[in-house]
Automatic annotation (TrEMBL):
Keywords: Flavoprotein, FMN. Pfam families: FMN_red. Residues 5-176 form the Flavodoxin-like domain. It comes from the Bacteria. This is Trp operon repressor.
Length: 183
């Protein structure tokens, strides 16, 4: 069985990319191999393949908020995964979602919920951010129980706050722990 965490993202301004790397680094720190992939060729990272998805042991899926929904490239990818769904290859694999918006009420939670839908259809075990993560209760920027989030603000900053970093790291560590337990 493959034992890597697939960290799959779309990012135009590096906010979601920065989150992807924090999640991946935390999982690697806990002994899990990580593959970081994106949805298109507009990044230094490799574009995701269906095989990357089929063979992962867990998934962290990130997209910027687009009017309370995932980016169209992310949705377009999920629409190509019917064969994976029919074969049940993602059933019982842990997954988490993460996002970024430019404003505090920019649709982060709606985006995270909409991103969860294809994962649930695939039978994945969706995990959020539990309230034992201290940064979840102290953040003034991003972070929700539905998944990690970032708020870039009026300056469109891709720099994550200390709380956002902590929440991303907790998501990576939690996915690593679950992958180990399920294997």
């Amino acid at each position: 069985m493959m034992s890597y965490l697939l960290v799959l993202y779309h990012s135009r301004t590096d906010s979601v990319k920065n989150m992807a790397y924090e999640i991946g680094d935390a999982a690697q720190h806990d002994g899990i191999d990580v593959k970081i992939r994106c949805f298109s060729d507009d990044s230094d990272d490799l574009a995701v393949t269906i095989d990357d998805l089929k063979h992962c042991a867990g998934l962290a899926f990130g997209s910027p908020t687009r009017f309370g929904m995932m980016a169209s490239s992310a949705k377009q990818f999920w629409e190509t995964t019917s064969d994976v769904w029919l074969s049940g290859e993602l059933i019982d694999k842990p997954a988490a979602v993460f996002t970024s918006s430019s404003s505090l009420h920019g649709g982060n939670e709606a985006t995270l919920l909409s991103m969860s839908l294809p994962l649930l259809h695939h039978g994945m075990l969706l995990c959020g951010v539990p309230y034992d993560v201290p940064a979840l209760s102290s953040t003034k920027t991003g972070g929700t129980p539905y998944g990690a989030s970032h708020v870039s603000g009026l300056t469109n900053s891709s720099q994550l706050s200390a709380e956002e970093l902590s929440i991303c790291q907790s998501v990576g560590a939690r996915l690593a722990k679950l992958i180990k337990q399920l294997q």
